[in-house]
Structures are given as C-alpha cells and as structure tokens.
Design goal:
262 residues, Rossmann fold, 15% strand, globular, binds nicotinamide-adenine-dinucleotide
C-alpha cells in the first residue's frame, strides 16, 4: 500500500525524520527495494527539541535544497489521567504534537513563501475537536495544533501566498501500535493505509481540512450535538476509561528516547 501511494507521484527525494532511527531504517530499506529511482534519506531527529529541528533543517536545505512538501506526522500520547500524569510528559506531548509543527514550518516554509508554492500538512486528530478522559493533554496539543494551522493558513492568504497550501488532517482512532488497546464507546477505527491515501489526495488537491473517516466531516459544525450527547454520558463521560486496556509500551519507548526518565 505504501508503495502504491508513491507510485505515479513525481517523488524524486524522500527525507524521513524520526527519533526511532532503527525502525525508520527498516521502513526506508523496504521502500528502497521498490523505488530505485527515488532518493530516500533517513535522519535521526528529536522533534521535541527545537534546536535539533533547526540544525537538521539546515543540513537538509544545504545538501538537498528546498522542501516542496512538508508532512508533520510525529505524535505521542501519555495515556494517563491528567492528575496522574507527569509534567515532563505533558510538556513533551505539547512539544511533539504542536510546537514541532511550528518550528518545522518556520524552518522549511520561508522558501515556499518566497516562491508562493508548496504544501504543508499536519497530521492532527479528531481529538482536536473532541476530548475524552485520559486524553486531556493529548487533546490540548491537538486543539492547539489545529488552531495554529488554521491561523497560519489565514496569514498566508492575507500575505497573498495562497500558493502555499496547508492541509490539516484529523483522523479518528487509527489501528496503529501507538493507540493499541484504545477503546471508546462509539469509537471508529480506521486503517493507517486509508489515512495515508486520503492525506496524499488532500495534499494534491490543496484541501485545507480533512476529517477521517469522511462521514465524520460534519464534526466541526456538529460540535454542539456532540456536547449534548456528552451531557447524556456519551462518550465515556460516564466514568469509563477509554485507555483502560491501552498498551502504553510503544509510547513509553518513544518518551524514553526523548529523555523522559521513566
Ligand atoms: N493512532 C491513532 O489512533 C491516531 C489518531 C489520530 C491521530 N493520530 C496521529 O497520527 C500521527 C501518527 O501516529 P501513529 O498512530 O501512526 O503512531 P506511530 O507511533 O506509528 O507514529 C508516530 C511517529 O512519531 C515519532 N515520534 C514521536 N515522538 C518523536 C520525537 N520527539 N521526534 C521524532 N519523532 C517522534 C515516533 O517515533 C513514531 O514513528 C500522530 O501525530 C498521532 O497523534 C493517531
């Protein structure tokens, strides 16, 4: 599926950043076998650190030139009830899920703005509209990120730079290891391949907001209805914990790589 996504698109170079460099290398090797004509570069970057973002962005620009499509996908979740969570993890969540988008854009968007051409995509979440018990800090980071992208989009248009497109993607629960065991009443689970497919289509078509699955698109205008349902105890406001069965091992591993002490 990942291969189908790249096929027929004029991708010449793919620069992939992640803090889990071993996993990234494995993925890149898989891609290299199928795409001998695409230059695939991997870089170890801790997106929780602005100085690493800026330093590595300079390396990318000097070695490979301007970035045409920027996709900010990295994300992390503490998975704890807020009052039980660690300040350090709350902060890392805000840094990765929101501030990293800001600094990545500051680092790579100037060339796009100058040419009035380019695409920026943020993988955000339905949790940027609706929060749940256990996701308070995660939702805060996603609400903030969506607000940031919306504001920046307006600024670019005001500056006459509507050739720089911003796409905000808000998926519901995705079947990945990060949220393994997540279980919420009324929850909709989608596959990562579907999210990737819809994301690339949205970027190509310059769509500003994508909510997935697409039948949840009325979400921004139906927020009142959701709050009404919330007053009736749905979803999970009845005291049940959607992360009760959550397997936090993947998030723990990534937090540890960020230097989190636990
Ligand atoms: N899985 C879901 O249910 C779900 C739902 C909606 C939105 N999202 C969002 O989708 C995006 C992808 O999540 P996923 O579910 O595919 O999880 P994932 O764990 O497969 O992907 C997230 C990636 O971010 C990387 N990362 C985390 N912190 C980093 C850091 N400090 N520096 C560099 N890289 C870092 C991880 O190593 C990982 O490879 C995230 O932004 C997530 O919040 C996920």
């Amino acid at each position: 599926m990942a291969l189908d996504l790249v096929k027929n698109r004029k991708v010449r170079k793919l620069i992939l950043w992640d803090i889990q460099i071993e996993l990234l290398e494995e993925f890149a090797d898989e891609l290299r076998k199928s795409f001998r004509n695409i230059d695939i570069i991997t870089m170890h970057v801790n997106l929780a650190k602005p100085e690493e973002i800026y330093a590595n962005a300079e390396i990318v620009k000097s070695k490979h030139g301007d970035v045409e499509v920027l996709i900010n996908n990295a994300g992390i979740v503490t998975g704890s009830y807020f009052m039980d969570s660690l300040d350090e993890r709350n902060e890392l969540t805000m840094r990765v899920n929101c501030f990293a988008h800001m600094y990545m854009i500051k680092a790579f968007a100037p060339a796009m703005i100058e040419k009035n051409k380019g695409s920026i995509c943020g993988i955000v979440s339905v949790a940027s509209y609706i929060s749940s018990p256990g996701l308070a800090d995660y939702s805060a980071s996603k609400f903030a990120c969506r607000g940031f992208l919306e504001g920046l989009n307006g600024e670019l248009k005001q500056m006459g730079k509507s050739g720089v497109k911003i796409t905000c993607v808000c998926p519901s629960h995705i079947n990945t290891e990060l949220f393994k065991g997540f279980d919420q009443m009324g929850n909709v689970t989608i596959e990562p391949e579907y999210v990737a497919y819809e994301t690339l289509n949205a970027i190509e078509n310059g769509k500003e907001l994508v909510i997935l699955p697409s039948y949840l698109s009325p979400l921004p205008i139906s927020k009142g209805a959701w709050e009404f349902l919330g007053n009736l105890g749905f979803p999970n406001l009845d005291g049940s914990n959607p992360l009760k069965q959550w397997d936090g091992k993947v998030a723990d591993k990534v937090f540890n790589k960020m230097g989190s002490k636990l």
